[in-house]
């Protein structure tokens, strides 16, 4: 499912018009599609209100009102901001009236079971005008079910910004595709349950949601004559005296997710903890300086991950600089996420910041990051030619070619120490097990989330710990394998 900015929606409408599909027809498709999508949530004994604005979002409301009236629903159509201003909305209002349907006056004493918010869509410019605020306050006092068309009124379409009087919908039916604010913060929490309504425009956008079907299609099944050399010889530089567990979690997830061989460079103390948890790995005990000097050439590592459980020091930075020159896939996590430049090599460089780390990288507040996760991640990925995985609810995965994806798996049980370490391990394995870099990265993020979803299906979200990935992965991975 694709994601469109308001500018992309406008461009799509203009192109459609140029090709002979009028906005009048698109609005008809929108209203008709909305009717079919919303109907299952309604019953004819409910009293419905459609509140239409002056733009085309309001126009969609007019078409929906006609379909609902024709189907026998008890609907009042009102214009709290005055009658439509756009040509197409006016045309649809004319047809609505010609069909014999009335426009009502707003009556604050009337009660409603369902209110359809067709006030503002992608054309909204925040903050909300005073004239709307009073009406929205009344609407909220109604305690009706609220259905928003396209976007809830009072939230931005492209960013996570929310007006203090914004409508919090129970359901939002978005037209043509998702809008970025569906996956940004705090706006996403105003959408309620979201469905996309197709309006007959070709689907084209460089951003979309990665789905279960995508994972199934891109899942690589092993050949019967496979050997460990085919699935990577990884170097994981992680774990310290204080944080040995981070290396254990990354290593066990990498092994479970299919890496061929893994060496962990860590401290003697950490290895005593890691070894019993992941007996499959081998160890190195080098300083960063020693690693730079010799090990890479001798060992022929094919991929590397660095950062879990490490502090950002000058020596670590020198090692990262060295690793960046080795032309192998490289994952930079936790202590290895720092501001620096990146070479434009052919092997992927993957950064996995959480919003706090990304905020330090960009010198922006976490609020600014969360409001603009998609745009900022994409800008960073394109400018620095890296793959940027911005973790959190609706993890954003931005690629250097300007494309990007939203991950919708995972839940609050992942908000616990160690879940990022597990993801780093899974990424390391995935990148070696799939020739398609995008699919490798996206599948690791998707399945990481599915593990926690599977957990909360059976157990309390409070109780998930990152060592559980190890026992969940066998079952979850099996479910994606084609017979
Ligand atoms: N391809 C598609 O997806 C299609 C979607 N459609 C629908 O069209 C809207 C976008 O319609 P548009 O007319 O561009 O914009 P809106 O209806 O969202 O808003 C414009 C009107 O809103 C007023 N406005 C803007 N900001 C505020 C505010 N803060 N407070 C109050 N009023 C506001 C604005 O007023 P002006 O005085 O500035 O003129 C406009 O009147 C999209 O979301 C879909 O629902 C179409 O059906 C076609 C295809
Ligand atoms: K709306």
From TrEMBL:
Protein task: Bifunctional enzyme that catalyzes the epimerization of the S- and R-forms of NAD(P)HX and the dehydration of the S-form of NAD(P)HX at the expense of ADP, which is converted to AMP. This allows the repair of both epimers of NAD(P)HX, a damaged form of NAD(P)H that is a result of enzymatic or heat-dependent hydration.
Residues at which K(+) binds: 57, 117, 153
Source organism (scientific name): Oikeobacillus pervagus
Cofactor note: Binds 1 potassium ion per subunit.
Domain YjeF C-terminal: 211-480
GO molecular function, one term: ATP binding
HAMAP family: NADHX_dehydratase (MF_01965), NADHX_epimerase (MF_01966)
Name used for this protein in its record: Bifunctional NAD(P)H-hydrate repair enzyme
Cofactor(s) in the UniProt record: Mg(2+); K(+)
Gene of this entry: nnrE
Domain named YjeF N-terminal: residues: 9-207
Segments passing through the bilayer: none
Subunit composition and interactions: Homotetramer.
PROSITE patterns: YJEF_C_3, YJEF_N
Keywords from the UniProt entry: ATP-binding, Isomerase, Lyase, Metal-binding, Multifunctional enzyme, NAD, NADP, Nucleotide-binding, Potassium
Residues that, per the record, bind AMP: 391-395, 420
């Amino acid at each position: 499912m694709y994601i469109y900015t308001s500018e992309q929606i406008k461009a799509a409408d203009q192109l459609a018009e140029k090709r002979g599909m009028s906005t009048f027809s698109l609005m008809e498709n929108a209203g008709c599609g909305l009717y079919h999508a919303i109907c299952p949530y309604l019953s004819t004994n409910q009293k419905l209100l459609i509140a239409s604005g002056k733009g085309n979002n309001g126009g969609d409301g007019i078409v929906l009102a006609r379909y609902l009236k024709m189907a026998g629903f008890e609907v009042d159509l009102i214009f709290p901001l005055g009658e439509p201003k756009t040509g197409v909305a006016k045309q649809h209002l004319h047809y609505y009236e010609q069909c014999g349907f009335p426009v009502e006056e707003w009556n604050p004493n009337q009660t409603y079971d369902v209110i359809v918010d067709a006030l503002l869509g992608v054309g909204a410019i925040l903050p909300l005008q005073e004239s709307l605020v009073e009406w929205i306050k009344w609407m909220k006092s109604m305690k009706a079910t609220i259905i928003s068309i396209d976007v809830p009124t009072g939230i931005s379409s492209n960013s996570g910004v929310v007006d203090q009087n914004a409508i919090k919908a129970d359901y939002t039916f978005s037209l043509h595709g998702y809008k970025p604010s569906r996956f940004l913060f705090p706006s996403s929490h105003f959408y309620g349950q979201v469905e996309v309504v197709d309006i007959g425009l070709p689907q084209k956008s460089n951003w979309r949601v990665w789905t279960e079907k995508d994972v199934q299609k891109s899942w690589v099944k092993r050949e019967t004559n496979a050997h460990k050399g085919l699935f990577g010889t990884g170097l994981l530089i992680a774990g310290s005296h204080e944080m040995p567990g981070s290396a254990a979690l990354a290593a066990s997830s990498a092994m479970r997710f299919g890496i061929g061989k893994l060496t962990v460079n860590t401290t003697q103390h950490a290895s005593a903890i890691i070894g019993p948890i992941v007996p499959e790995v081998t160890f190195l005990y080098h300083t960063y300086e020693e690693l730079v000097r010799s090990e890479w050439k001798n060992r022929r590592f094919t991929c590397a991950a660095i950062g879990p459980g490490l502090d950002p020091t000058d020596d670590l930075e020198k090692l990262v600089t060295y690793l960046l020159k080795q032309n192998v896939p490289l994952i930079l996590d936790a202590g290895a996420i720092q501001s620096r430049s990146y070479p434009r090599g052919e092997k992927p460089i993957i950064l996995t910041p959480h919003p706090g780390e990304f905020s330090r990288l960009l010198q922006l507040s976490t609020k600014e990051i969360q409001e603009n996760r998609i745009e900022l991640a994409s800008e960073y990925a394109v400018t620095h030619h890296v793959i940027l995985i911005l973790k959190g609810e609706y993890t954003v995965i931005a690629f250097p070619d300007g494309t990007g994806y939203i991950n919708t798996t995972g839940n609050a049980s992942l908000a616990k120490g160690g879940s990022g370490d597990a993801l780093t391990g899974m990424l390391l394995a995935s990148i070696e097990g799939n020739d398609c870099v995008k699919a490798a990265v996206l599948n690791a993020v998707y399945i990481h989330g599915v593990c926690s979803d599977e957990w909360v299906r059976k157990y309390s979200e409070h109780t998930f710990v990152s060592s559980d990935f190890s026992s969940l992965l066998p079952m979850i991975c099996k479910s994606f394998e084609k017979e």
